[in-house]
Amino acid sequence: MTEKRFQTGFTLIEVLVTFLLIATGLLGLAALQVTTINNAFEAQQRALVTALVDDMAERLRMNPVGVRSENYQSFDPQIPCPTSGVTADGQATMSPEVRAALDECQWAAMLKGLAVKTAEADTSGIGAPIGAMGCLDAQIRPGDETVVRVAVAWQGLTAQVAPFATCGTGQFTNTDSVAPTVDEAFRRVVYRDVVVR
Questions:
Q1: What is the pLDDT of residue 123?
Q2: Is the Cβ–Cβ distance between 157 and 175 less than 8 Å?
Q3: Could you tell me the pTM of the whole model?
Q4: Residue 2 has pLDDT above 70, yes or no
């Protein structure tokens, strides 16, 4: 009479297949984690930029005479802050021109993140969007109406559809650290059109 043998345990092939399946699942989970972190960072950047755009839009609405006088025609972040007509708390008390210059100076500081800095002498701030640059484009329309497009462009982490707004065109590159090239798919833009009558 022959004795029946029953298999106990796992074979080497079964163990290797199990390891392969687990490794594939863990790699997929790691990729999902990286994508989630990138998307969360992009959302945080977009929220910060939206607040910056809304801030300048409100400044324009508070200075309609300055807007109609074409003081917000374009934006140059290198223009120094006005010193005359400014009180100790930083408020402009003089003309709409001084108010416009102060608005642009303060907005440039916020774009660089200088509203929050570790020391008073810091030239770079904390929490600014990556490579943020502001744009103002004013157009005078018939009927005593001026439309100012307030836009902020910044560097994205992943390629997306290139924005149609022109702020920052040609200024942002892909994420290749060896040979970065200009790539509009990495440029992000948020804008608002402000109408002043």
A1: 63
A2: yes
A3: 0.79
A4: no
